[in-house]
Design brief:
Blueprint (H helix, E strand, L loop, with lengths): L1 H10 L15 H26 L1 E9 L6 E10 L7 E7 L4 E2 L6 E6 L5 E5 L43 H11 L10 H6 L1 H7 L4 E11 L3 E7 L1 E5 L2 E5 L12 E8 L13 E3 L6 E15 L5 E15 L1 E2 L2 E2 L3 E8 L2 E9 L2 H39 L4
Parallel strand pairs: 13-17, 13-18
Antiparallel strand pairs: 1-18, 2-7, 2-11, 3-4, 3-8, 5-6, 5-7, 8-17, 9-10, 11-12, 13-14, 15-16
């Protein structure tokens, strides 16, 4: 009974064996075997590398997240705009505004060759107490507490402006401009105009980050202190006693969120040279929310973006325009998910089997074609029919 079962199993053999006495080994067969073995090894190594490395799958989904904030990291160099003139403002479509942003921002004074002169975080100058003018009109005495005048810009009667920056901020909140800083005691003592003249011909490297609402908006770099006047966003440039500003700039880095492996931001390293006296350089950015999940499960919540550029000259019709570099951003409703993962072992095994079987089959077909072709030609030669 056992022999019968074994006999039935033997009859199912799909690989019947041929006696070695019937084998005919040829030179062409040996060459085809060497080449096919080499190809098989190369394909196996390639497949093994794919299996050992991670692959990144991309998926597009609708972004259902609501609220939250957006972190904008920037590093921009203005080779012809001094740090004392440069301010950063941010505003969004919800109506929220951040004017003359200073926190988390560093300014580096640079010379015409790009060398750093000084790095600072605060505004222009520092208060020098050399018998400054008191709010009541007299000079500061040794036994008095200093309380400088805000020159009519006090929100309440008890407000004090003890530095030039305090006066400028009070004027900004009122929507006023300072036409002559030398008439302001604090600015005159701190050498406001002297500091601006001292920095003439210098540039500024400004870097840091902004934390804004996750809605469309803009941020911009412009000369002069910004304020709202009759619902219009304006900059006080009278104090600088200049009528033109060179907004040549280089964007060293600009990201919306954390770094994503393998993603190149389109504005990194972009340089633009200003050819006209004044103007507004605009970048229109479409921000795409992105989630990058590492193979270990760690996720990075960040953003990619695309950009278009446009330059507007200083005047359109009869309206004077604000000079500066503006970044207008909007968020895409589509979110991109990048997921790192390894190829499964079964997938790897299937591909290896396909490589071995495929190469073996193709080489067998080639060998059969060469062998039978050679025999046919040889037979014709023997019969004298080959010409």
């Amino acid at each position: 009974m056992m022999d019968g079962v074994l006999g039935k199993i033997r009859s199912l053999d799909a690989y019947p064996k041929i006696n070695e006495d019937f084998y005919s080994r040829t030179l062409s067969g040996g060459l085809i075997t060497i080449v096919s073995s080499f190809v098989m090894v190369l394909l196996f190594i390639s497949e093994l590398r794919l299996y050992l490395n991670t692959v990144t799958e991309t998926q597009l989904v609708v972004d259902t997240a609501r609220g939250g904030t957006l972190r904008i990291n920037f590093d921009v160099t203005f080779p012809a705009l001094p740090c004392s003139l440069l301010t950063v403002d941010a505003m969004d479509i919800s109506g929220e505004q951040h004017l003359d942003v200073r926190h988390d921002i560093i300014k580096k004074r640079i010379d015409s060759h790009g060398n750093v002169i000084e790095a600072r975080q605060d505004g222009i100058g520092a208060p020098k107490i050399e018998r400054p003018l008191q709010k009541h009109g007299g000079r500061l005495e040794h036994n008095e507490t200093y309380c400088g005048s805000c020159y009519g810009a006090e929100a309440v009667d008890d407000d004090c402006c003890n530095s030039c920056e305090d006066v400028r901020e009070a004027y900004r909140k009122k929507g006023w401009a300072i036409s002559n800083p030398d008439l302001i005691d604090q600015c005159k003592r701190e050498g406001f105009l002297e500091r601006i003249k001292e920095e003439e011909g210098e540039g500024c490297n400004i870097y840091g980050f902004l934390e804004v609402n996750k809605v469309g908006g803009n941020f911009h770099f412009s000369p002069g202190k910004s304020f709202q006047q009759s619902g219009v966003h304006v900059h006080d440039m009278l104090a600088f006693q200049k009528d033109s500003f060179n907004i040549t700039h280089r964007i060293n880095r600009l990201t919306f969120g954390d770094y994503i492996p393998g993603v190149v931001n389109p504005l990194d390293g972009v340089h633009w040279t200003h050819a006209t006296p004044n103007g507004m350089y605009q970048y229109f950015i479409k921000v795409v929310p992105t989630v990058y999940t590492h193979v270990n499960g760690h996720s990075i919540q960040s953003n990619q973006f695309s950009v278009t550029e446009h330059f507007r000259t200083a005047s359109v019709g009869h309206l004077q325009m604000l000079s500066g570099v503006f970044f207008f951003y909007d968020l895409s409703p589509i979110k991109v998910n990048f997921t790192e993962q390894h190829v499964s072992f079964l997938h790897f095994l299937t591909n290896v089997c396909a490589i071995v079987g495929g190469v073996f089959t193709v080489s067998g077909i080639i060998d059969s074609f060469v062998y039978h072709g050679h025999r046919a030609i040889k037979k014709k030669i023997e019969l004298g029919k080959f010409s």
